[in-house]
């Protein structure tokens, strides 16, 4: 039964990510990294990810899309919708989108390192689980800082060194909070019913979906604090 449920949610996650990716191709994000972040969000937020994207992140139609639809009622609706997203977005939504930005880097790192950990059997202090967690943290941190660094460099006059420092400041607390939430859930899953961290099991990736959702929830307060202190900007 768990295997069937796992396949269902993984399929829903992939479908949500593809739907967002197709829409993003028609409506590119003002911040380029979000063209990657929003589809990744769909992977661990099946269905809900589409709602979040449509409600908080969907950009105005591209010039070609506008031309193909003319200037009728539908176009006016899209323009108004886009203004709502990027103009007077409530703070909770800005923090939510910032958390997806953090989640995108964390998820990318986890997806890359999990198969490596399983293939190599990497262990620390005799524990494969600890080895997996450490590799995942390193991968998530590298991708997370990269996801922060690229927009800082692209949207400011900061030097590479200063942009890297700002990216580390903006990402560290939220990333630690995200990964901590993930690890707590994965430990529960391992000792409860999964048994081991096998990245070639569909149940593992379903548990990772749940873990990423929990990580998103635990990173939300961290992002709120960073934004309140001016270390990070609401998106």
Percent of residues in β-strands: under 5%
The major β-sheet equals:
none
Give the terminus-to-terminus CA distance.
39 Å
Q: Kindly state the mean pLDDT as a whole number?
A: 87
What share of the residues lie within helices?
over 70%
What would you say about this model in short?
The chain is an all-alpha fold and 235 residues long. It is built from nine helices and no strands. Mean pLDDT is 87; it is low at 71-86.
Describe the structure.
With 235 residues, this protein is mainly α. The protein has a domain at 92-228. Helices cover 80% and strands 0% of the residues. The protein is built from nine helices and no strands. The protein has helices at residues 2-26, 34-44, 48-57, 63-69, 73-86, 91-120, 128-155, 160-194, 202-228. The radius of gyration is 19 Å and the shape is globular. The termini are far apart. Mean pLDDT is 87; it is low at 71-86. The chain crosses the membrane at residues 6-25, 32-53, 130-152, 173-194, 206-227. This is DUF4396 domain-containing protein.
